[in-house]
Amino acid sequence: MTTPVVAVRGASVTFGAVRALSGVDLEISAGEAVGLVGHNGAGKSTIVNVINGGLTPHEGSVSYGGMASGMTGVSAARAGGVRCVFQELSLCSNLSIVENARLMHAGLTGFGWRKRALALIETKLSEVFPGNRVDCSATVGTLSIAERQMVEIALNFLDVSGPPKLVILDEPTSSLDSALAEQMLAHVRKFVSGGGSVLLISHILGEILSTSTRIVVMKDGGVVAARPVSEFTGKSLVEAMGSVVREKTRTGVRTVLDTSPTVIDIPATPRTGLGLKARKGEVIGLAGLGGHGQTAMLLALFRERSSNWLPHRPDEIAFVAGDRALNGTFPLWSILRNLSVGNLGALSKRFSVHAANEDAVGAEWKQKTAIRTPDMHLPILSLSGGNQQKVLFARALSTPARIVLMDDPMRGVDIGTKQDVYSIIRAEAEAGRTFIWYSTEMDEICLCDRVYVFRDGAIVAELSGDEVSEHNVLAASFSGEAA
Amino acid sequence: MKIKISADHIRLLIPLVSLAVLLVAVFWLQPRAMSYLGLNLLFNLAVPIALATIAQMLVIAVNDLDLSIGTFVSFAACVTAVYMPSTPLLGIFILAVAIAAYAFMGMIIHLRDLPSIVVTLGMSFVWGGLAVLILPSPGGQAPVWLRSMMTAQTPIIPFAIVASLVIGIVAHLIVMKSTLGVAIRGVGGNARSVSRAGWSVLRIKVAAYALSGFFSVLAGMALVGLTTSADANIALRYTLLSIAGVILGGGEFVGGRVSPIGAVVGALTLTLAGSFLSFLRISPDWQIGAQGAVLIVVLGLRLIFSRREA
Transmembrane residues, as ranges (chain B) (predicted)? Predict the structure, then answer.
């Protein structure tokens, strides 16, 4: 057997308390198209980053065919012939296509590289996407999103100093229409039959099944199945992605009376898919793969119900941010101030914050949400991540808001805190609040009364009651034969 | 090859048109400016400003901002006026160390992820202090070769215009044509994808800052060649003039969108705006405000054009 193009052995990666990858083995040989599927947090992007050298595994090793195993990092990966088309578009939009090619390929040097690069790109682009009308001398910023994606794919297949050996395609068709996607997949098949190898990640199972020679299924940072494509069907793929263990039993789910008043009602449209309806006291889950429109929906809901100019009525809506550092905490403020900032109006007297009121509210929520701190006046950063998240919950819940939007707030939170927060959410829902909860974790989705599954920016399925199960959510998240 | 009118062309067109309009207005007010001597006088002081603008542009290209250019150019001018005529080797050594300090500043800004505005603002006091230490009261003298270079009588086209053209073309070759230039603008556009392609963003930024320091040193020397003496506060206005020149010339604060030719044209336009206001007998006190007004008009025009495209 020949040496594989890339061999990952026993790779483990941890981010804080989260184990993103646990002892993964993955070998990709020449002439192989490996399809990689898995739900949120399965470790797909982590393994991609390990292979392309952007992330050095904390345990285990990566080696590129025929090279000394000691070499790691981006340059080793590129020297080993690994190219990567990232999920988010990653060209420099202020540069021309040719200049982007120069950045990507160190081999394009010497006098007249612009001319050579232009010829190479034009040939490659019309090879991958026959009949395209992209102007290859243009600046990337002037291209449409689909054109940028096409250019990025073509650039990565470019043969400058030796052809690419392994091309990683992370959701390459997300901004291409079906005709272009088919052209690209045809090129991938041709590339693979010519001895190249490809690692393809896609949420469209049809693409995976039609293009791959072997499919690797990941879950919870490990590989759960790796078999030739002929042994999979759309249905069995979805099953493989789900829990190997028992179906989650849904406990404590209440049936909300159909008579309670509707607080949110978004009609169905062709663009956003099915409508969304939420009743008083319901916990609504937004599921699906990350980045398929859930956060956009939450932001739209929030914007619709709050004013740009004057402080809105405080009893309407509250938002719990997911990315604490980016848009959650005020890192220089105390715990108490981080909590009270959501509802300063009610705590104020004569246009200034009333300290005694603020302290009272702080003490109340410290006890209610069990924030572990000796003093609410300590800086917020003295808390663990989970406790910071509790403060953000308390900030939202201490307002009289009837609707609470949650943007995947449990990322990187320890299990104890999660249990605390789940019970608070339950209690508050009983008391009549409505929760709209975007979560990337299946356990949390299964806690919701009703679940909407998102795909490609639209709601594609509504699950309620006993229909809320990992299998159904997965089947709806991945389009293709299984849907 | 067919000519396509793209956004980039419009970007360059606006400063060119504003320069032409100002030039026509100046000639109309003062027809005698339309001569070899007149043009040289009009644009003489634009040469050091153009060099400082290129220096600023290199820093803006990597999404940073340099608030120390004014004092750094003053410092370079003081070093030139004090050491170059008598001990040129020492002078060159000091200037080389200053450029290295600029590169080091770029390294610190990148490694520690510091805001460039804060670091360069702090450094501006360092350069200002050093300049005062070297030359406590206005004085010094220009080395003979520098003086004769800056007052050279080029045939037909005045020296100031030849020099501006050369600066523009050299900067264009470095920033728009060379590989390093592509990398520098790439860092401004999307630093992550540059590093993903296997480049060292640190090295690129250090190179951009070093180049910037080099152009600032040239600006200081050119200034001494014109004025024959130096002063610790000689170029304080250059900080804002250089930023204005870059923006006027079609550059943007973020995103690595810069244009060297445009930056030189922007510097010329700003210089000319000053002369134009003098011809209108507007007191120099108002000139900074009026330059600001010119800037606002040009930026407004650009906004209108870019809106129409979108």
Answer: 12-29, 41-60, 67-84, 90-109, 116-136, 156-175, 206-228, 234-254, 261-280, 286-305
* pLDDT tens for each residue of B247-271: 888 888 888 899 999 999 999 998 8
Among A48, A87, A90, A92, most B C-beta atoms within 10 A, so best to mutate, is: A92
Distance from CA of B21 to the nearest CA of A (A): 29
Q: What is the pLDDT of residue A237?
A: 85
Give how far Cα A350 sits from Cα of A312, A317, A346, A358, B128, Å.
Answer: 19, 25, 11, 14, 49
Distance CA A220, CA A39 (A): 9
pLDDT digits (tens, 9 = 90+) for A236-260: 888 888 754 444 445 555 555 567 7
Higher per-residue pLDDT: B273 or B111: B111
Instruction: List chain B domain ranges.
Output: 7-309
All CATH 3.40.50.300 domain ranges of chain A, comma separated, are 6-241, 262-477
Among A101-110, A400-409, A441-450, B282-291, which is the least confidently predicted range? B282-291
Q: Which two tokens stand for residue A173?
A: 């068709």
CATH superfamily of domain region A262-477? P-loop containing nucleotide triphosphate hydrolases (3.40.50.300)
Please give the model's pTM, rounded to 2 decimal places: 0.81
Give per-residue pLDDT as tens, A181-218: 889 999 999 999 999 999 999 888 888 999 999 999 99
Across the interface, whether the CB atoms of A95 and B198 are under 8 A apart is answered no
CA–CA separation, A143 and A136 (whole Å): 10
Whether B63 contacts chain A with CB within 8 A: no
| B243 vs B266: CA distance, rounded Å | 10
The domain defined by B7-309 folds into ABC transporter involved in vitamin B12 uptake, BtuC (1.10.3470)
- Say whether pLDDT at A481 is over 50: no
Distances (CA, A) of A251 to A260, A382, A447, A468: 22, 35, 8, 12
Task: Please give the single-letter amino acid code of residue B86.
Answer: S
> What CA–CA distance (Å, rounded) separates B158 from A165?
58
Q: What is the 3-state secondary structure (H, E, C) of A249-278?
A: CCCCCCCCCCCCCEEEEECCECCCECCEEE
What's the pLDDT at B6? 62
Is A142 in Cβ contact with B198 (below 8 Å)? Answer: no
Q: A6-241 adopts what CATH topology?
A: Rossmann fold (3.40.50)
Using a CB-CB cut-off of 8 Å, the residues of chain A touching B195 are 74
Residues of chain B contacting A142 with CB distance shorter than 8 Å: 6-7
In angstroms, the CA B68 to CA B225 distance is: 22
The string over A45-58, giving b where at least 16 C-beta atoms fall within 10 Å of a residue's C-beta and e elsewhere, is bbbbbbbbbbbebe
